[in-house]
Write a structure and sequence with these properties.
single chain; about 90 residues; mainly alpha; two-stranded antiparallel ribbon; about 10% strand; globular
Length: about 90
């Protein structure tokens, strides 16, 4: 099944935010967990604010990590309970 770019973009942001909040919080770690290109991972992190998720970089440039500071209206437990579906949708890109 083919999914829209809007849906895959939204799910990608949810998934990245979930990974960051779960401890996979550096670009190399996100790339390893997802297989996505570095630039896609970076752009997705920067775009989290567009859906209301606040994310900040903590620490030194090369030794720092990302941290979710606010989920806004997003329900993190929904992501956790639908994680496999989100991954399935993203595999069809």
């Amino acid at each position: 099944m083919k999914h829209s770019k809007t849906k895959t973009s939204y799910y990608r942001r949810l998934y990245i935010a979930y990974l960051i909040d779960s401890g996979t919080n550096t670009v190399p770690a996100i790339r390893e967990a997802t297989g996505m290109p570095r630039r896609t991972a970076q752009d997705t992190i920067l775009a989290l604010s567009e859906i209301g998720i606040e994310c900040e970089f903590v620490g030194a440039t090369k030794a720092g990590m990302y941290k979710i500071t606010s989920w806004s209206a997003i329900r993190k437990d929904w992501i956790k309970h639908n994680l496999q579906h989100i991954k399935d949708v993203l595999e069809y890109q």
